[in-house]
Write a structure and sequence with these properties.
By secondary structure, this protein is α/β, with parallel strands linked by helices. Helix content is about 25%, strand content about 40%.
Length: about 150
């Protein structure tokens, strides 16, 4: 289960709207307690997939490292990654799955490590979201609680 404040969810929605018609992407920082993750900060990232940014995203590894180091120094962890689907539904595509670390590391499957919120942005307006985790190499919808 992923828990996020309305304010931070609004930040993700705005990022999706600003990036439209490209996919936005970013990093979620917070804490873990077993299968529960609490988002405490959202770090919008630049989408490096310049020529495919309408249906792909890539977070700069240097930015990720910087965010991870900053988070660790403050007692936080990377708990997930978000992105948008411009003019498409909020789902976890096969490409999304094949690009996530839990899938890339392969069998034996590691426990679900990150949450992956996806925001549907229709004609420039964030419409709705869904959240996913990776379990045994497959995407499963995860409960997202707004508090």
């Amino acid at each position: 289960m992923l828990t996020i404040s309305q304010t931070l969810l609004d930040t993700i929605y705005r990022h999706g709207e600003e990036a439209f018609p490209a996919e936005c992407c970013g990093i979620l920082l917070g804490s873990r307690d077993g299968d529960r993750r609490l988002v405490q900060e959202v770090k919008p990232a630049q989408n490096l997939r310049a020529e495919e940014r309408n249906d792909r995203y890539e977070i700069d590894p240097a930015f990720r490292k910087q965010v991870e180091d900053e988070a660790a120094s403050r007692g936080l962890a990377v708990i997930g990654f978000y992105h948008s689907h411009p003019n498409h539904e909020a789902y976890f595509s096969q490409t999304d799955l094949e690009c996530c670390e839990e899938y890339i590391w392969g069998e034996p499957w590691i426990p679900s490590t990150y949450s992956y919120p996806v925001v549907s942005v229709k004609e420039g307006q964030a419409a709705y979201h869904k959240c996913f985790i990776i379990v045994d190499g497959e995407a499963q919808e995860e409960e997202l609680v707004i508090r």
